[in-house]
Structure formats: structure tokens, C-alpha cells
């Protein structure tokens, strides 16, 4: 089987603009299944729908849309596909120095400069921020020239001012790796993404990475801040969250459909990650959505 390397994405600003603003309806953003990276910082707003976000070594589930900010060269998958059922997706991309390096030294820009530093780990914003900023992103996209730039800076300043966010990749290492590391780690991520419902052995994944098992284990832990088993379990649990929230399946079916072949191990792992049982999660999610 051929494994794809992460795509390097070349990003061009909109004509007459210093940054890129794109709007995709429903599942138009076809990069959703491909790991890619680019030097541009990326702000993504998904209006409605639910799915998995995969940013750096973090895999998590979102519902009722999403708002995330990702720093330069942080590998990620697109947010939407045909199963997301979102209304539309806004993608804003800009180079960290798109206004020139010296501008970040200005006192008025310090807050935004700190935001961009935090974004190297990936940031997801809370519900109230998502709704307010999502509306502003739509207005900005419809504006032109200087007005568009001013509105964009106001959006960045609002994001820099809120405390309502979560860092996606904890620890000092944000997968801001060398390109050859990106190639190797993304090969591993793509393999997990395509095979998480099957058993994946350390021998098999180490061979794929062209390493001995002990070296692979050390390498993976250093790059992602978690063991390979933790990473695969996190992927499977995130998939189970999507199934519990969206599909009328029994919890036993969810367990096996998510790649776990032992129901008690699934329950135990689910509680470790989510701090509640699968049935409790489903009950609370349905109550929240109603």
C-alpha cells in the first residue's frame, strides 16, 4: 500500500490583499483527508456540523461548528468532509510577517503577537467566541481592501483578548519539526487514520517508520508528547464520541466500530479520557443538543 507524505501547501493571498480569505460551502474543502502543512498561520471557522479535528498530535471531536487557530507549519487535516454536515467553512491564511516584522514590536500589537506565539500549539475557541467571531469573519470576507484588513486585525485582537480557549497540543514540542520529521510523523498519522479500526502493532508501525521498536517509541514520545498506544487510543475514543453523538448504535457496537476489541477495556479507556462513561456521555450530549 502506498502511503502519502504530508502535502506542502503553497498559499497565495487574494488579489489585492496581503492575506487569503476563502469560503467553502459544505464539503467543498477537499483537503479534508490529507495531512498538510504550510508556513502560513491559519484561522478556520466551521459554521454548524460536527466532526474530528486533527491538529498536530491532538485528535478531538467538535459539534455545532468550530473555530481554531493554527501556527506556521503545524501539520493538520482539513476540518470538513461529506460527513460533517456543516453549512460552510471559512479559511483565513496569513504569513506571520504579513504586515512586516517590525509591526509586532508596536505596543498595540503585543497582544496579537502573543496570540500568534500560542497558536504554534493550535488553539480551539469556546462556544460564545465561536459564534461572535464567526459572524465577524463572514463580514470581513465580504469587505474589500483596507476595510477587510482593519476587520481582520479586529478579529485577531478579539481572539487575543479572550480567556475562553484551549491549547490543543500541550507540552513544549508542537510538531514544529524538520521537514523530514514532518514526512515521517505524517506517514505514521496517515496510517493510524486509515487503519485505527484494525489492530496496529508496534512492530508494524516501527517498520513503516523505518525504525527499530525501542527507537520508534522514544522518537514518537519526543515528537508528540504521548506514547503510540495513547495516540491510537485517543484516535479511537474521538471516533467513538462521534458515533455516540450521531449514530443510533448500541455502545457495544460503538466499541467495536471504533477499533476496540474488548468492551471492558473500551469502557475503562473512555473514562480515562472523558471522565465519564460512554452511556453518561451520550445522555449528556443529547440533553445538551436538545
TrEMBL record:
Tell me the keywords, alphabetical order.
DNA-binding, Transcription, Transcription regulation
GO terms assigned for molecular function: DNA-binding transcription factor activity; sequence-specific DNA binding
Q: Which InterPro entries match?
A: Homeodomain-like_sf, HTH_AraC, HTH_AraC-typ_CS, RmlC-like_jellyroll, RmlC_Cupin_sf, Tscrpt_reg_AraC-type_HTH
Matching entries from SMART domains are given as: HTH_ARAC
Domain spans labelled HTH araC/xylS-type = 186-284
This chain belongs to which protein, by name?
A: Transcriptional regulator, AraC family
Looking at the keywords, is Transcription present? Answer: yes
State the organism of origin: Chryseobacterium polytrichastri
Amino acid at each position: 500500500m502506498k502511503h502519502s507524505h504530508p502535502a506542502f501547501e503553497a498559499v497565495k493571498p487574494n488579489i489585492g490583499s496581503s492575506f487569503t480569505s476563502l469560503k467553502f460551502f459544505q464539503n467543498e474543502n477537499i483537503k479534508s483527508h490529507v495531512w498538510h502543512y504550510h508556513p502560513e498561520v491559519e484561522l478556520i471557522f466551521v459554521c454548524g456540523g460536527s466532526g474530528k479535528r486533527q491538529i498536530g498530535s491532538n485528535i478531538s471531536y467538535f459539534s455545532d461548528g468550530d473555530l481554531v487557530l493554527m501556527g506556521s507549519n503545524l501539520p493538520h487535516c482539513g476540518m470538513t468532509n461529506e460527513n460533517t454536515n456543516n453549512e460552510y467553512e471559512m479559511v483565513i491564511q496569513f504569513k506571520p510577517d504579513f504586515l512586516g516584522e517590525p509591526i509586532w514590536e508596536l505596543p498595540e500589537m503585543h497582544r496579537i503577537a502573543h496570540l500568534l506565539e500560542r497558536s504554534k500549539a493550535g488553539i480551539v475557541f469556546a462556544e460564545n467566541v465561536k459564534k461572535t467571531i464567526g459572524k465577524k469573519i463572514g463580514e470581513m470576507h465580504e469587505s474589500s481592501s483596507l476595510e477587510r484588513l482593519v476587520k481582520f486585525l479586529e478579529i485577531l485582537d478579539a481572539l487575543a483578548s479572550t480567556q475562553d480557549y484551549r491549547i490543543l497540543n500541550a507540552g513544549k514540542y508542537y510538531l514544529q519539526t524538520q521537514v523530514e520529521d514532518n514526512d515521517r510523523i505524517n506517514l505514521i498519522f496517515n496510517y493510524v487514520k486509515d487503519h485505527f479500526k484494525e489492530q496496529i502493532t508496534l512492530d508494524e508501525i516501527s517498520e513503516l517508520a523505518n525504525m527499530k521498536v525501542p527507537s520508534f517509541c522514544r522518537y514518537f514520545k519526543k515528537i508528540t508528547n504521548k506514547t503510540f498506544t495513547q495516540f491510537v487510543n485517543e484516535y479511537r475514543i474521538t471516533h467513538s464520541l462521534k458515533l455516540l453523538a450521531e449514530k443510533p448504535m448500541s455502545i457495544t457496537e460503538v466499541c467495536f466500530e471504533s477499533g476496540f476489541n474488548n468492551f471492558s477495556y473500551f469502557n475503562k479507556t473512555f473514562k480515562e479520557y472523558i471522565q465519564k462513561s460512554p452511556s453518561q456521555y451520550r445522555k449528556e450530549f443529547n440533553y445538551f443538543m436538545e
